[in-house]
Amino acid sequence: MARYVIGIDGGGTKTLGAIADEEGKIIAQYEVGSTNHHSNPLEVVKANLGELITTLLAKAGVQATDVACVCSGMAGVDRPDDKALVKSMMAEFLPNALAIPVNDGLIALVGGTMRAVGIIVISGTGSIAVGVNKQGIQGRAGGWGHILGDEGSGYMIGLRGLRAVCRAYDGRTGPTLLQDLVMKHFGFDRPEQILGWTKQVQGSKTEIGALSRLVHEAHSRGDATATQILREEAEELALAAAAVARKLFADDNDYEVVVGGGNLRKSRPFFEMFQQAVAKRLPGIPVIMPRREPVEGAVIYALDQLRRHEATIAGATS
Fold this sequence. Notes:
Elements: E1 4-10, E2 14-21, E3 26-33, H1 42-60, E4 67-74, H2 80-93, E5 98-103, H3 104-113, E6 118-123, E7 127-132, E8 138-142, H4 145-148, H5 154-170, H6 177-186, H7 193-200, H8 205-209, H9 212-220, H10 224-248, E9 257-260, H11 262-266, H12 268-281, E10 287-288, H13 294-317
Parallel strand pairs: 1-4, 4-5, 6-9, 9-10
Antiparallel strand pairs: 1-2, 2-3, 6-7, 7-8
Helix pairs in contact: 3-13, 5-9, 5-10, 9-10, 10-12
């Protein structure tokens, strides 16, 4: 009897799912709204998951009972309570499937390296470094949120861009192109208006993180302040990668560092700064762009975990 696996990439605004056969060939994909139970009512999460799984099964012509494993990569799924909740929801839709809930960083790593070994460093609005070694042991650095951490993130880059404008306006530092770019972006006449804006958005991580593009633009136009910000934040991301490497790969150099998030994937200069910073701390370790997308990583990880699970059962009964 043919068996199938489902991989789910559950983001904050959208969720992508894929169903594949035992060889890893993806048969169908489908997208629904957010399935993050930390930011959505549980009934909304269940409704979106139900639509996702039902549609995938229909498009692939597969019965729910033929799905052997489902791997769901979701933000914040690290605590036992979170994992138990996701498993219980999956049991409603896929009663025969082994449910594997993991942090979304893990499926991005597997998709990026095409195996469940390595380190992923993500710089989106927030930042985190996540790794897995050949023994299946996981480690992480960062991911503390924008109050306690998020070094190297879009939020931190955007915040430092705003701070640079204020410092230059005061005369504490030299002039920076960021002042013109920020003023034009907001349509402000005076830098003092930035203070009112930050109060209005209540220091929103998303709103401030979106300003990182202005820092990237200023760097591309030769602004020394923007370049310094990006270089220092790339160093912070490299520190996180090195911290994970010490935890997981002390005596092993057979792994890669893959990047995720818009800052590293969409800005070649920032990616190259990160490469250089990693090379100083982890000589000889490749830093790469992802080979596949996170949802494909969820499929690969589902197949890997299914085989490990069945091998464990076979060993226990032999």
